[in-house]
Automatic annotation (TrEMBL):
Source taxonomy: Bacteria, Pseudomonadati, Spirochaetota, Spirochaetia, Spirochaetales
Cofactor dependence: Mg(2+)
Alphabetical list of SUPFAM superfamilies matching this protein: PRTase-like
EC class (word): transferase
Reaction(s) this enzyme catalyzes, per UniProt: GMP + diphosphate = guanine + 5-phospho-alpha-D-ribose 1-diphosphate; IMP + diphosphate = hypoxanthine + 5-phospho-alpha-D-ribose 1-diphosphate
Single annotated GO MF: magnesium ion binding
Biological processes, Gene Ontology terms: GMP salvage; guanine salvage; hypoxanthine metabolic process; IMP salvage; purine ribonucleoside salvage
Domain named Phosphoribosyltransferase: residues: 15-162
Family listed: Belongs to the purine/pyrimidine phosphoribosyltransferase family.
Location(s) in or outside the cell: Cytoplasm
Protein name listed in UniProt: Hypoxanthine phosphoribosyltransferase
EC number of this enzyme: 2.4.2.8
Amino acid sequence: MNLPKGIESILIDKETIESKVTELANIIDNNYKDIETPLVVIGLLKGSFIFMSDLVKQMQTPLQVDFMIASSYGDSMENTEVSIIKDIETHISGRHVLIVEDIIDTGITLTKIENILSNRNPKSMKICTLLNKPSRRTSEVNIDFNGFDIDDHFVGGMGLDYAQKYRNLPYIGVVKNEKL
Ligand SMILES: O=P(O)(O)OC[C@H]1O[C@H](OP(=O)(O)OP(=O)(O)O)[C@H](O)[C@@H]1O
Ligand code: HPA
Ligand SMILES: [Mg+2]
Protein backbone atom coordinates (compact mmCIF):
# COMPACT_ATOMS: atom_id res chain seq x y z
CA MET A 1 0.00 0.00 0.00
CA ASN A 2 1.22 3.53 -0.79
CA LEU A 3 1.60 5.44 2.45
CA PRO A 4 1.24 9.24 2.53
CA LYS A 5 4.48 11.22 2.65
CA GLY A 6 5.28 11.64 6.34
CA ILE A 7 3.93 8.23 7.43
CA GLU A 8 6.68 5.65 7.79
CA SER A 9 4.67 2.50 8.57
CA ILE A 10 1.28 1.12 9.58
CA LEU A 11 1.17 0.32 13.28
CA ILE A 12 -2.45 -0.96 13.50
CA ASP A 13 -4.37 -1.86 10.36
CA LYS A 14 -8.00 -1.07 9.54
CA GLU A 15 -9.35 -4.61 10.11
CA THR A 16 -7.66 -4.92 13.51
CA ILE A 17 -9.14 -1.57 14.55
CA GLU A 18 -12.62 -2.54 13.33
CA SER A 19 -12.70 -5.74 15.35
CA LYS A 20 -11.38 -3.95 18.43
CA VAL A 21 -14.10 -1.30 18.15
CA THR A 22 -16.77 -4.04 18.00
CA GLU A 23 -15.21 -5.76 21.01
CA LEU A 24 -15.12 -2.49 22.99
CA ALA A 25 -18.75 -1.67 22.10
CA ASN A 26 -19.84 -5.08 23.42
CA ILE A 27 -17.87 -4.69 26.65
CA ILE A 28 -19.25 -1.18 27.18
CA ASP A 29 -22.84 -2.30 26.46
CA ASN A 30 -22.43 -5.07 29.00
CA ASN A 31 -21.12 -2.58 31.56
CA TYR A 32 -24.17 -0.30 31.15
CA LYS A 33 -26.83 -3.01 30.66
CA ASP A 34 -28.85 -1.93 33.74
CA ILE A 35 -28.61 1.81 33.10
CA GLU A 36 -31.76 3.75 34.04
CA THR A 37 -31.11 6.98 32.07
CA PRO A 38 -29.39 7.33 28.68
CA LEU A 39 -25.60 7.32 28.84
CA VAL A 40 -23.95 10.66 28.03
CA VAL A 41 -21.08 9.91 25.65
CA ILE A 42 -18.66 12.84 25.51
CA GLY A 43 -16.09 12.99 22.72
CA LEU A 44 -12.97 15.11 23.00
CA LEU A 45 -12.48 16.80 19.65
CA LYS A 46 -10.96 16.87 17.29
CA GLY A 47 -9.13 13.58 17.70
CA SER A 48 -12.01 11.38 18.84
CA PHE A 49 -14.41 12.09 15.97
CA ILE A 50 -13.85 8.90 13.96
CA PHE A 51 -13.42 6.45 16.85
CA MET A 52 -16.44 7.83 18.67
CA SER A 53 -18.73 7.59 15.66
CA ASP A 54 -17.53 4.06 14.87
CA LEU A 55 -18.02 3.08 18.52
CA VAL A 56 -21.53 4.45 19.08
CA LYS A 57 -22.75 2.87 15.82
CA GLN A 58 -21.92 -0.52 17.34
CA MET A 59 -23.47 0.18 20.76
CA GLN A 60 -26.98 -0.85 21.89
CA THR A 61 -27.02 1.15 25.17
CA PRO A 62 -29.47 4.11 25.05
CA LEU A 63 -27.21 7.12 24.75
CA GLN A 64 -26.83 10.74 23.78
CA VAL A 65 -23.70 12.44 22.52
CA ASP A 66 -21.94 15.70 23.28
CA PHE A 67 -18.51 17.11 22.51
CA MET A 68 -15.79 19.17 24.09
CA ILE A 69 -12.99 20.73 22.10
CA ALA A 70 -9.66 20.59 23.92
CA SER A 71 -6.32 21.27 22.32
CA SER A 72 -2.82 20.97 23.68
CA TYR A 73 -0.51 19.66 20.96
CA GLY A 74 -1.18 22.35 18.33
CA ASP A 75 1.24 21.65 15.48
CA SER A 76 3.89 19.99 17.66
CA MET A 77 4.71 16.53 19.00
CA GLU A 78 4.68 17.71 22.63
CA ASN A 79 1.85 18.63 24.99
CA THR A 80 1.87 22.37 25.68
CA GLU A 81 -0.96 23.95 27.69
CA VAL A 82 -4.41 22.37 27.51
CA SER A 83 -7.03 24.85 26.38
CA ILE A 84 -10.77 24.20 26.40
CA ILE A 85 -12.19 25.72 23.25
CA LYS A 86 -15.75 24.37 23.53
CA ASP A 87 -17.63 22.96 26.52
CA ILE A 88 -20.46 20.40 26.47
CA GLU A 89 -24.06 21.62 26.46
CA THR A 90 -25.51 18.69 28.45
CA HIS A 91 -26.18 18.91 32.20
CA ILE A 92 -24.37 15.86 33.53
CA SER A 93 -25.27 16.08 37.21
CA GLY A 94 -26.70 12.67 38.22
CA ARG A 95 -25.95 11.19 34.77
CA HIS A 96 -23.70 8.33 33.70
CA VAL A 97 -20.88 9.78 31.59
CA LEU A 98 -18.47 8.05 29.22
CA ILE A 99 -15.55 10.16 27.98
CA VAL A 100 -14.18 9.02 24.62
CA GLU A 101 -10.59 9.82 23.63
CA ASP A 102 -8.48 8.86 20.63
CA ILE A 103 -5.26 8.63 22.64
CA ILE A 104 -4.05 9.02 26.20
CA ASP A 105 -0.38 9.95 26.08
CA THR A 106 0.98 12.05 28.97
CA GLY A 107 -2.51 11.98 30.52
CA ILE A 108 -2.47 15.77 30.98
CA THR A 109 -5.48 16.50 28.74
CA LEU A 110 -7.70 13.87 30.30
CA THR A 111 -6.75 14.78 33.86
CA LYS A 112 -7.86 18.34 33.20
CA ILE A 113 -11.12 17.25 31.56
CA GLU A 114 -11.87 14.75 34.36
CA ASN A 115 -11.39 17.49 36.96
CA ILE A 116 -13.75 19.84 35.16
CA LEU A 117 -16.46 17.22 34.61
CA SER A 118 -16.28 15.53 38.01
CA ASN A 119 -16.99 18.90 39.66
CA ARG A 120 -20.41 18.74 37.97
CA ASN A 121 -21.33 15.62 39.97
CA PRO A 122 -22.06 12.96 37.35
CA LYS A 123 -23.48 9.72 38.75
CA SER A 124 -20.52 7.89 37.23
CA MET A 125 -17.69 8.82 34.89
CA LYS A 126 -15.70 6.31 32.85
CA ILE A 127 -12.98 6.63 30.23
CA CYS A 128 -12.72 4.91 26.88
CA THR A 129 -9.72 5.37 24.59
CA LEU A 130 -8.68 3.81 21.31
CA LEU A 131 -4.97 4.13 22.08
CA ASN A 132 -2.89 4.29 25.24
CA LYS A 133 0.81 5.20 25.45
CA PRO A 134 1.67 4.18 29.05
CA SER A 135 5.41 4.88 28.75
CA ARG A 136 4.77 8.64 28.36
CA ARG A 137 2.44 9.08 31.33
CA THR A 138 3.14 12.03 33.64
CA SER A 139 -0.40 12.43 34.96
CA GLU A 140 -2.18 9.34 36.29
CA VAL A 141 -5.36 8.30 34.49
CA ASN A 142 -7.60 5.34 35.22
CA ILE A 143 -8.73 3.90 31.86
CA ASP A 144 -11.90 1.79 31.96
CA PHE A 145 -12.04 0.70 28.30
CA ASN A 146 -8.79 0.60 26.31
CA GLY A 147 -8.30 -0.38 22.67
CA PHE A 148 -4.54 -0.77 22.27
CA ASP A 149 -1.42 -0.08 24.31
CA ILE A 150 1.23 1.31 21.96
CA ASP A 151 4.94 2.07 22.31
CA ASP A 152 6.30 5.59 22.24
CA HIS A 153 5.66 6.50 18.58
CA PHE A 154 3.93 9.66 17.43
CA VAL A 155 0.99 8.28 15.47
CA GLY A 156 -1.64 9.58 13.04
CA GLY A 157 -4.88 8.30 11.49
CA MET A 158 -8.35 7.38 12.82
CA GLY A 159 -8.80 11.01 13.91
CA LEU A 160 -5.27 11.55 15.21
CA ASP A 161 -3.16 14.23 13.56
CA TYR A 162 0.29 15.66 13.28
CA ALA A 163 -0.09 19.38 12.48
CA GLN A 164 -3.72 18.66 11.40
CA LYS A 165 -2.64 16.06 8.82
CA TYR A 166 -3.54 12.34 8.60
CA ARG A 167 -6.82 12.43 10.58
CA ASN A 168 -8.73 10.66 7.77
CA LEU A 169 -6.42 7.65 7.45
CA PRO A 170 -8.41 4.48 8.28
CA TYR A 171 -5.44 2.93 10.08
CA ILE A 172 -2.94 4.02 12.75
CA GLY A 173 0.36 5.00 11.13
CA VAL A 174 3.70 6.02 12.62
CA VAL A 175 4.55 9.64 11.80
CA LYS A 176 8.13 10.21 10.60
CA ASN A 177 10.09 12.23 13.09
CA GLU A 178 11.77 14.86 10.93
CA LYS A 179 14.11 15.81 13.79
CA LEU A 180 15.80 12.39 13.80
O1 LIG B 1 -2.43 12.59 27.07
P1 LIG B 1 -2.01 13.85 26.40
O2 LIG B 1 -0.50 13.97 26.35
O3 LIG B 1 -2.64 15.06 26.99
O4 LIG B 1 -2.42 13.76 24.86
C1 LIG B 1 -3.66 13.32 24.42
C2 LIG B 1 -4.44 14.41 23.76
O5 LIG B 1 -3.68 14.98 22.68
C3 LIG B 1 -4.43 14.96 21.49
O6 LIG B 1 -5.19 16.13 21.33
P2 LIG B 1 -4.63 17.46 20.63
O7 LIG B 1 -4.21 18.45 21.66
O8 LIG B 1 -3.61 17.09 19.60
O9 LIG B 1 -5.93 18.03 19.93
P3 LIG B 1 -6.74 17.35 18.73
O10 LIG B 1 -7.62 16.29 19.34
O11 LIG B 1 -7.51 18.46 18.12
O12 LIG B 1 -5.74 16.75 17.77
C4 LIG B 1 -5.35 13.77 21.67
O13 LIG B 1 -6.48 13.88 20.83
C5 LIG B 1 -5.69 13.82 23.13
O14 LIG B 1 -6.80 14.65 23.41
O1 HPA C 1 0.92 10.11 19.14
C1 HPA C 1 0.09 11.05 19.01
N1 HPA C 1 -0.43 11.37 17.80
C2 HPA C 1 -1.32 12.36 17.63
N2 HPA C 1 -1.76 13.13 18.63
C3 HPA C 1 -1.29 12.86 19.85
N3 HPA C 1 -1.56 13.46 21.02
C4 HPA C 1 -0.87 12.86 21.94
N4 HPA C 1 -0.11 11.86 21.42
C5 HPA C 1 -0.37 11.83 20.09
MG1 LIG D 1 -3.74 16.72 17.75
